[in-house]
Every structure is written in C-alpha cells, then in structure tokens.
Amino acid sequence: MINNGSNTAATWAVRATAVLAVGALSAAVIASCSSHGKPATAPIASTPARTTVAPTKPPIPRAAPTNPLTGVGAPPTGPVIAVKIDDTEGGRPSLGLEKADVIYVEEVEGGLTRMVGVFASSRPKVRAVRSVRPSDPELLTQYGRIIVVASGGAGAALGALDRSSLHGVINDRGQVGFYRDQSRPAPYNVVSDLAKVSAAIKADGVRNVGFSWSARDPRLARARSATSVSTQVGSTRVSFAWDSKRHSYVRTVDGRRVVTASGAPVAKPNVLVQFCQVRVDYSDVDVNRNPSMYTKSVGSGRVVLFRGGKRIEGTWSRPKVGARTVFRDRGGKPLLFAPGGTFVALARPGTAA
Q1: Most C-beta atoms within 10 A of its C-beta, which of 28, 101, 161, 174?
Q2: Residue 96 burial (C-beta neighbours within 10 Å; 0-12, 13-18, 19+)
Q3: Is 5 a domain residue?
Q4: Prediction pTM value
C-alpha cells in the first residue's frame, strides 16, 4: 500500500535541499562580485612608474679670485702693511718702493709731499721710513685693521693712530723690524724689514678697497690721449710719463725717471688723481713751525684716471671711515683699472691734471 503522505514529505525535502543548494550557489556568485554590487574585475599586474630625470645644466665657471689691490694673481696671504715713505730728494733712491701694490702721494707741511706705500704682494725692506700724520688713519682704515709702519710722529698724529683700528709699528717706540742704513744720513736712513713686521704682528689681509680691474676698457678707444701726467700736491709738482714698452706710467722729477736702489723705475699701469678737501692741521706742527695739512679721504669729489696712455674723467665717493672708496666714470659706471697696481695722487680741488 502506498503512503502518499510519506512520499509528499520526501518530495518537499528534496525540493528544499535543491533550493538551499541553489541559494548557496547564488550567494557564492554574488560574493564573487564587488561588495558594492559592481562586477569584480581580474587583478591587473602593476607597471613600475617611469622616473623622468631632468637634464642637469653644467655649472657656470667662476673666475678665480685675484689680488684686489693689483688685479694680478691670487690674493696674497698675510697682513697688509702701509709704510710712510719719504718723497724728497734726500730720501732718494728709495728702497723697496717699486714692490708696493698701491702708492699714495699726500700733502704734508710746507708744501712738501710724503708717500704711503701699501704692501701685500711682497714684504721687502723699505727705506726711507718717515713719520705718520693725523690724516693717515682716515685714509688707511678702508683697508681694514692693517699695519702702519712709521719712524715716529707728533703727539696728535700718534694719538690718532693709537685710537684707530690700525696696528701702529713705530721706530721711535723701539718696535719690531727697524734698523738704520749707516751709509745714508738721518733722517733718511730708517729701514723697515717688512718680513719681520709681518711675522710679528697679526693684522688683516687684503680686501676690496674700491679698485675694479680689467685688462680692457672700451672707453679707451674714444678717450683723450695722455702720455704724460702732471698735477700738484701741495706745492710739489707730481709727474708721470707713459712707457708703452712697460705698459706703465713712470714717476718723474724734473723730467728724470725716479728709480729705486735696485735700479728699477717707480712705475704702475695706473695713475689716479683724486681731488680731496685739504685743511690746515694745527695739531701737528713741525720743528720749523709749519703746520701739517689734513687731507679728507672721506666724502666725494672728482677723479681723473690715467691708463694705457689715455685719460678718463670720473668721481669718487666714500661715505665713512670704514668704507671703501667707489670710483665711477661720468656716466655712473665703474672706472676700470689696468691690472698691476696704482699711483694715487691726493690733490686739492681745482688743481690741474
């Protein structure tokens, strides 16, 4: 006898199992899709990112530094030394003067002149060393805390030097490096050995004091010719003659070349006539009761630069004692000095040059 109830139950059981199986299969299929209902995609193999390297520019070559006092060679090491040097017939021939990087000619008392030789490239023995003046610290502090060598000086002059940032080395104080040349009369026989001074005194080295150097200057092509230079410092005629073979101006006195004890002419590629205010300085009076003259190197004024047998007009300016001097042409562009060193004649305004 057939039991229809049992068969019906079995049939429903089979159907239920099939439904559950289909549901499980559907769930599996759905699970394989994105959880957000989006179809799953097959993973894509990652490709390494390409790195783009920008081409590098070659470095711009920089000019090697040069001696700022001459424009020639690498900057020298060691201290800068300024020496007060006689500029009269009694002191000639001088010793070592031709090796100075810069030579100033300044007015002192009685219309006479003295020189200040600035040495950095070499340390020679120098003669004839003379006394300091009150205006020297103002002129020389643009070089920094350098050494100033002198034979002596009046109280006001030595006081001004002692109060300044300069290192005074004075013969009358028994300081280092001095001796007397017994073959010459006093006071023209004081010698300073700058190698000994340099070794004993720590001071500043070279720095830019305002000279801009260039072997060429296009302004020279249209500049006025100047194969001779003649100006006046105090009542002393200061003259130079252009030597085309040496490419330099040679100092002359009464038409004769000035030479040093070595026989070398006193010559530089540049002569700068710098017009400065000059006043009487009654704090410094010599044995003949002549007051010294104080040359103002701070301020501004006119200059004439002589180089290459030509002349270029310009101006100078220096705002304060510690600042360098700026030299420009009439159009406001820097004056360019020929490499090799410079004479600077400090003349009164209105003096011919």
Answers
A1: 101
A2: buried
A3: no
A4: 0.83
